[in-house]
Amino acid sequence: EMIEAALPDTTVIGFTTPQDAEAYLLNNKPAGIVCDIKMPDFNGMMFLRNLELTHTMIHPFIFYSGYMSEWKDQIAELKKSGTVDGFIEKPNNGELVNFLKKWYKVT
């Protein structure tokens, strides 16, 4: 809701499992992905790797998570590679909205 409020021409589609998101991405190309790192039975790093392997990577790809410190080594590598466009620690909703506004050039 916060993204749709800040970017009124945006539709946000949420998924409860990474597998559902991966299935969606096989036939759809959203304007961006905001992904948590920690998920039940899966993690955002695995999701990201699957996107790369299936050539369904979308930009911007943003990790938005309260578990950044647990993944600091992997995040450091991703920052070097440029694979991920943003890393935002929850619950900083304002930073996420500002990042998206800047990416999509919305004032």
Overall description:
- The protein has 107 residues and is α/β, with parallel strands linked by helices.
- It contains five helices and five strands.
- It has helices spanning 2-6, 18-25, 44-53, 72-81, 93-103, and strands at 33-35, 38-39, 42-43, 61-65, 86-89.
- Strand 2 and strand 3 (42-43) form a beta hairpin.
- It is globular and about 35 Å long.
- The relative contact order is 0.18.
- The model has no long low-confidence stretch (mean pLDDT 88).
What is the average of the pLDDT values? 88
Q: Can you give the helix content as a percent range?
A: 40-55%
Any low-confidence stretches, pLDDT <50, length ≥5? none
How far the N terminus sits from the C terminus, by CA atoms, comes to: 18 Å
> Helix and strand string, N-terminal first?
HHEEEHEHEH
Protein structure class: alpha/beta
Features:
107 residues; alpha/beta; 3-stranded parallel sheet; two-stranded antiparallel sheet; 5 strands
Quick take:
The chain has 107 residues and is an alpha/beta fold. The protein has helices at 2-6, 18-25, 44-53, 72-81, 93-103, and strands at residues 33-35, 38-39, 42-43, 61-65, 86-89. Helix 4 links the parallel strand 4 and strand 5.
